[in-house]
Amino acid sequence: GIYNAPTDTAAPAVTYSNQATPLIFKDGNTSAFQFFSYAGCLSSVSFNLANEIIYRELIGCTKEILITDRKPAGDVVIEAPTIATKDYFSLALGTSTGNLTFLHGTTAGNRVTFTASQVDVTQPTYGDQDGIAILNLPYVALPTTAGNNEFSLAFT
Predict the structure, then answer these.
(1) Which domain does 142 fall in, by range?
(2) Tens digits of per-residue pLDDT, 107-148?
(3) Residues 144 and 117: beta-carbon distance below 8 Å
(4) Is there a domain that residue 25 lies in?
(5) Are strands 51-56 and 64-70 parallel, antiparallel or unpaired?
C-alpha cells in the first residue's frame, strides 16, 4: 500500500461472538468435489488470483495502487486414478477445459461453494503421500467469453 506514518492508536474492540467456528478441510466438512467431472479422493486444493499490482505516482495525479492484470491458477492434489478412469495427462496435452468445484461447510449460512467452470490442466505429475500414489494437477482458471468470471464463491 501507500505509506502512512505510524501513530499512537488504541487497539479496536473486537467481537468474535457472531463468527462461525472454523471447519477443517476434510471429509464430512468438504463435499461435492469434482475436477474435470471426476469426483476422486481429494487431498488439497490451492487457488491464487495472481493479481499484478503496480504503484503509480505521476505528476499532477493521485498516488495509487492498481490491479492491472490477473492470472488465476492453483493446484489440485488427488489420489491417482488409473489412466482408464481419468486421463489427466491427455487432458493436459489437449485443448479441452473442465470444471473445478467443491463445497466447504455443513450448516446453512456457513457454507461456501468454489466453482471454476473453465480450467485447463497444465503439467500433471505423480507423487507419493503416505505410500499412496497421488496426482499433482496444476491448473489455470480461464474466463469464458463473457469475461471476468474465472471463478465464483457462493455463500449459502
Answers:
(1) 30-155
(2) 998 999 999 999 999 999 999 999 999 999 999 999 999 999
(3) yes
(4) no
(5) antiparallel
Question: HEC string of 88-155?
Answer: HHHHHHCCCCEEEEEEECCCCCCCEEEEEEEEEECCCEEEEECCEEEEEEEEEECCCCCCCCCCEEEE
29 exposure class (CB count in 10 Å sphere: 0-12, 13-18, 19+): middle
In a domain, 22, yes or no: no
Cα 39 to Cα 144: distance, rounded to the nearest angstrom: 23
Which domain CATH number covers 123?
Answer: 2.30.110
Report the C-alpha gap between 98 and 144 in whole angstroms. Answer: 12
- Is the residue at 14 inside a domain? no
Neighbours of 119 (CB within 10 A): 24
**Contact in structure between 137 and 75 (CB atoms under 8 Å):** yes
Task: Please state the domain count of the chain.
Answer: 1
The reported pLDDT for the residue numbered 127 is 98
